[in-house]
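forwarding from the other thread:

> can someone predict this with iron/sulfur cluster?

sure thing
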Amino acid sequence: MAATRKPKLAVWKFSSCDGCQLTLLDCEDELLALVGEVEIANFPEASRTVVKGPYDLSLVEGSITTPHDAERIHQVRRSSKLLVTIGACATAGGIQALKNFKDVREFISIVYATPAYIDTLNKSTPIADHVRVDFELRGCPINKNQLVEVISAFLHGRKPNTPAHSVCIECKQRGTVCVMVAQGTPCLGPVTHAGCGAICPSYNRGCYGCFGPMETPNTESLSGRWTGLGVKQQDLLRVFRSFNANAEPFRRESERHED
Ligand code: SF4
Ligand code: SF4
């Protein structure tokens, strides 16, 4: 009797720091179980072995910042039955999307000794701006438990259970007293996507939005609350302009605080 073929898993890197791929490597025990369930067919950070596609599930880390990557992502899409983007770079453009607010030619001439060697696009954009994406997993970096949930869900043909509510709900679930109400600490939790388990408020500091915007964020209202706490316009611009600066609700809110 022919053996059942294991689903092929591929991991692809675009412009990123590799932190989200490291989250997958950091799964350790779960990774051993995963290896029993899938064939890791393409994961250069873990192995030099590359098995030809098509792939059942592709995980894509990183944003599109070069003309070459803008072509390569279409090849990845064509060879993947399901494509899941992982992390703020892939889902929003990442910290490198700060260049979207400036003229990139200025940076090139200042930073590089030989600017002629640099072949870059004007903007850093998420994967979903270029190809169809089946699911976006947020975070900078992503959360390990959520990653295992997403892989397991797609391998079993079900929808991943990753709530789209705010970090505030996670504070309530773990019994953390609200840092903004109790201590007057500015916190982006009310507009930030859940997934981290509300780590920062549990250490008495405000959330700085590394999981990006939640489903229906009221950023304007939160900015008003921060202003009441004494936060200046220029600082409001900066807090919305970090890892998820190019995510639409955060981008619009940061632009409201430009001079
Ligand atoms: S989302 Fe954050 S951790 Fe993941 S690759 Fe991008 S910069 Fe690194
Ligand atoms: S609390 Fe906010 S900044 Fe801290 S890890 Fe969670 S989403 Fe990121």
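The first helix runs from residue 19 to 25. thats all i got for now
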